[in-house]
Amino acid sequence: MSVNNWRTTVTGFLAAASLVLVGCGSDHAGGVTSPSAVAAHTASAVTTNRVVAFDHGNDGDEVEGEAPVTSLVAGTSCPALSFMIGSVTISVTSATRFEGGGCADIKPGVMLEVKGTKVGTTVTASKIEFEGVPPTAPTTPPGTTPPTTQPVEGEGTVTALAAGTACPTLQFTVSTFTVNLTATTMFEHGACADVKVGATLEVTGMMDTATRTITASKVEFKNENENENEPAEGDGIVASLVAGTSCPTLQFMVGTFLVKVDANTVFDKGSCAAIQVGMKVHVKGGMNRTTSSVLATRIAVQTDNSGPGRPDHPEIEGDARVASLMAGTSCPTLTFRVDEWTVIVDATTTFVSGSCADITPGRHVGVKGVVTAEHTVQASSIVVKND
Predict the structure, then answer these.
(1) Which residue has the higher pLDDT, 180 or 22?
(2) At residue 13, what are phi and psi to the nearest 5 degrees?
(3) What do you get for the CA distance between the two ends of the chain, in Å?
(4) What DSSP string runs through 267-330?
(5) Closest among 158, 147, 198, 150 to 181, alpha carbons compared
(6) What percent of the chain has pLDDT over 90?
(7) Residue 8: pLDDT band by 50, 70, 90 thresholds?
(8) Which of 73, 145, 207, 310 gives the lowest tally of CB atoms within 10 Å of its CB?
(9) What mean pLDDT do residues 62-88 have?
(10) CB count, 10 Å around CB of 200?
């Protein structure tokens, strides 16, 4: 029997994963739930009057944190600019030191690391470091014509999606920049459909300097949610194909995992069209633990080790009562639980003395099928019993 053993590769530790609070409490161990209590560098030693969350600490405490700018305070300007990060007001003074940019580069959506002194809900910044500065056009020597387009790369937060646009030619804004996607745009750690307001992206492409419009050649998702886009790799048997999907955007089930294929998926062996129920596949990609789905970056189809009758595809048969139906599934591709087993129904499943619609919790059924993964059966026939 082939066991789906998906392994997750840890690529690094983020300070956001273990938010250290010094001198104040939090809603739960290792983190806070307030939107303005943002990712901050882990403290190397406990210091009485230093905290790493903007909305914690007492007046006079030194605080620091990292987050995108929410808005600029009306009526203020450099060098005495004030801006908002969540519910906290950040005040810039002539003594504020900058790294990676200047006061004029502070705009909504720009990612900043701020250090300063807290009084009430205001932090007077002593140092501001730009973590994701939008690209700016270089100066052009006198007497020369500035280029109309130039290569750029920058990181920022999506502030809006353009009405009337959709994938694969979606248009959205990052701060004051307009980003255009095309059918040739490459994606890392996500797909076009994952571009939403609030997502942090790194965009590479060509910018029209007159309109500040970027045609993206590559978009990389900088998701700080530890449950999303974790590197994963594993082997398993294709249990079912998701109805309504087809190559090159096929979706299929391997055990309890949903595997998504897109135009960027590379096939090391076989092809998208070769993916069929019962075939063994090796999948590598980014896993979302919340939805138990994997966006495949590479797939190898093991066509020489598939099909019923193989040692890792034993046929089984048994009687039991339906324990529950799996949410999100329905006839003719229903999935349900019988004891510790998951039973998968598809259009090829035959029924005796009933139909797919008769499968309800408590119903006595006889199931015959092929084991496709640990405690998972692809049903070839089901007898509906009326006792």
Answers:
(1) 180
(2) -110, 130
(3) 33
(4) EEES-GGG--TT-EEEEEEEEETTTTEEEEEEEEEEGGG-STTSTTS-EEEEEEEEEEEPTT--
(5) 158
(6) 25
(7) very low
(8) 145
(9) 87
(10) 19
CA distances from 63 to 43, 49, 56, 103 (A): 11, 8, 8, 20
Distance, CA of 274 to CA of 237 (rounded, Å): 13
CA distance 236 to 302: 10
Residue found by looking up tokens 């701020």 in the block: 114
**How many CB atoms lie under 10 A from the CB of residue 195?**
21
Distance CA 110, CA 101 (A): 11
Q: How far is CA 44 from CA 15, 16, 50, 102, in A?
A: 12, 15, 11, 28
Tell me if 333 sits within 8 A of 347, measured CB to CB. yes
Q: State the maximum Cα–Cα separation within the chain, in Å, rounded to a whole number.
A: 92
pTM (2 d.p.): 0.30
Mean pLDDT of the chain: 77
Helix, coil or strand: residue 187: strand
What pLDDT shows up at residue 223?
A: 60
What is the chain's length?
387
The model's confidence at residue 51, banded by pLDDT at 50, 70 and 90, is: very low
Q: What whole-number distance in Å separates Cα of residue 235 and Cα of residue 312?
A: 12
Task: Find tokens 């730009």 and name the residue.
Answer: 130
Closest CA to 102 of 127, 85, 137: 127
User: Whose structure tokens read 């609070």?
Assistant: 21
